[in-house]
Structure formats: C-alpha cells, structure tokens
Write a structure and sequence with these properties.
Layout lengths: L19 H5 L4 E4 L8 H5 L6 E4 L9 H6 L3 E4 L6 H16 L2 H9 L15 E5 L3 H12 L3 E5 L5 H5 L4 E2 L2 H7 L2 E4 L13 H5 L5 E5 L8 H10 L2 E6 L19 E3 L8 H21 L11
Parallel strand pairs: 1-2, 2-3, 4-5, 4-7, 5-6, 7-8, 8-9, 9-10
Length: about 300
C-alpha cells in the first residue's frame, strides 16, 4: 500500500477459527462489520502487517483493544449505522411471521398445498416488552398501532420512564403470565446474560410467541428449546443466537415453530451506506495522519 489502497477484498462468508490468520495475513487494514468476527489477541499476533482496524459502529466487545494498542495497531470507528427503527421493524416482522405462520404457508404453497394453518390475531392481544429503552418504546408504538395492549418490565424500569410510551409497567411475573407475545429489547451485560429462563417461560400462555432481536445469550437456550418443544411457547422469532453464525445442525433449525434470521436487525440499505462511507473516511483520515508503517494516528 503506497499513497492509498491498492485493493479492496470483501469476505462474503464468516472466517472460521483457524483460517482467519492466513486469510488476513496480507492486509494492512481490516474493516469489521460490528461484532461479526471475534478479533482476539492471538489473531492480532498472527497479523504482523496489520496497521489499522476500522470498526463499524461504536462498540466491538470481541476485539482485544489492549492487544491492538500494544502492537501499535490503530482502531477507528465509523458512525453507527444501526437504527432502532431497523431492529424494531424486524422484530415486528418476526412477530407477524410467527402469528400468521407465514414461512410455513409459503413453503406449503410452493409444494402444492393450500392453507394448512390458522393464524393468531394480534389485535386485542397483549404484547410484553422486556426492556423499555428507545427500541422497546418504539416496539410499544408498533404494537399499539396493531391494537395490542402493551406492558413492560425490565430490571431498571420506572413508572416515569413507562409513562411516555403508553406501555403499562408490570412485575416480571405478570409480564410473562399476561403476554400473548414477548419481545426482548435489552442490552447484553453481566446482569442480563441468562436473565430469562425456564421459570419465566413456564409462566407464558399456551401458544404464546417469543421474539428476540437483542442478544441470544439473554435467554437461556436450553430453557427456550424445552418451551418450544413441550410448551407453553407456540412459536419464537429469533434473530440472535449464543453461537453465531448458527450451525445448520443446531436444534433451532429442526423446529417447525421457529422463524430464524441471521442477525439482520441492523442490516439495512441506509445503515450499510453509513458504514461504508464511514470506513472510507476513517481510512483516509488514518492515511492523512501518518504514512503506513509509520506512527499511527491517535486512536479515538
């Protein structure tokens, strides 16, 4: 690389553990889409040419920043392309797909079968929101637009916070017991990891729907699988998983009452335009601040 980038190489498939080092060995700069790929210190140590990492968005929890700093690798961030509208629109889509059996009916129709299921009417039903921050409040508005009663609970929810959303604050037990559908809108942290388990799911109404577009680890996976197989859950719409990419052999892939999407919550045309423009701007700023191989620009 001299005076600018000589080539841009896209990776359209996830790099598996063990192949990332050889695949990335010749690059001076790598750009990461959110947390799609972990970058531990062991990988950085295997990339002696690497001088700059560009991260899309504000955070990358699986990047070893200390190791990057120690090796003199600059780390820059693009503006966030994620949108609360993007994720909540997908959550609504998953809810509708589950309620009306859209994927099952689509497959049946393509195979010559006609109207195999009876859908669930959401109007007049109760939508429970686990988390009522900006995404949860937006989801409350979407549920209310469908004519749903909206209730909410989170570890830190206050009546004042709920007041402006139209969602009724309830206890944790009441949220799971009274909801016909539950949508999760929490940030993954040490306090929310594994937060929702068998006791919560057992309280849900028979045939209820669970939607998760936040992080897979918020819901205990074994408890969710049991609730889908044996009740009371009727369906789940899942965009996030403990292990990503989700292996094709995973039990979720065998269940007919689960709608799966590959972490698409933030994946939109608008968001990726912001990401790509931000990547170019970061690389230009880094090149202007110092020659490749020389002193990297200040990290931000």
């Amino acid at each position: 690389m001299s005076g600018g980038l000589t080539s841009v190489v896209p990776f359209r498939e996830p790099l598996r553990v063990g192949e990332a080092a050889s695949a990335l060995a010749e690059f001076d700069v790598i750009c990461l889409i959110r947390e799609r790929m972990a970058v531990p210190g062991s990988l950085l140590a295997a990339l002696p040419r690497l001088k700059l990492i560009v991260v899309t968005g504000r955070d990358h929890r699986t990047l070893d920043r200390a190791a990057a700093m120690q090796r003199g690798i600059a780390v820059l961030h693009t503006p966030s392309g994620a949108s609360l509208h993007a994720t909540t629109e997908l959550a609504l889509g998953l809810l509708l797909a589950c309620a009306r059996n859209i994927l099952r009916e689509d497959r049946a129709l393509r195979e010559g079968r006609w109207q195999e299921t009876i859908g669930t009417l959401l109007h007049g039903r109760t939508l429970g929101l686990v988390g009522l921050g900006r995404p949860g409040a937006r989801m409350a508005a979407l549920g209310q637009a469908l004519g749903m009663r909206t209730i909410a609970w989170s570890p830190n929810l206050t009546p004042d916070r709920a007041a402006g959303t139209g969602a009724e604050p309830v206890s944790r037990a009441a949220l799971f017991a009274e909801s016909d559908a539950v949508s999760i809108h929490l940030v993954l942290s040490e306090t929310t990891r594994g937060l929702i388990g068998a006791e919560d799911l057992s309280r849900m109404r028979r045939g209820a729907i669970l939607v998760n577009t936040s992080r897979g680890a918020i819901v205990q996976e074994a408890a969710l699988l049991a609730a889908l197989r044996h009740g009371p859950l009727g369906a789940a719409g899942l965009d996030v998983f403990e292990a990503e990419p989700l292996p094709a052999s995973h039990p979720f892939c065998t269940l007919p009452n689960v709608v799966l999407t590959p972490h698409l919550g933030y994946v939109t045309d608008v968001g990726f335009r912001i990401y790509v423009e931000g990547m170019v701007a970061c690389i230009r700023a880094w090149l202007d601040a110092g020659t490749p191989g020389g002193t990297p620009p200040a990290r931000r």
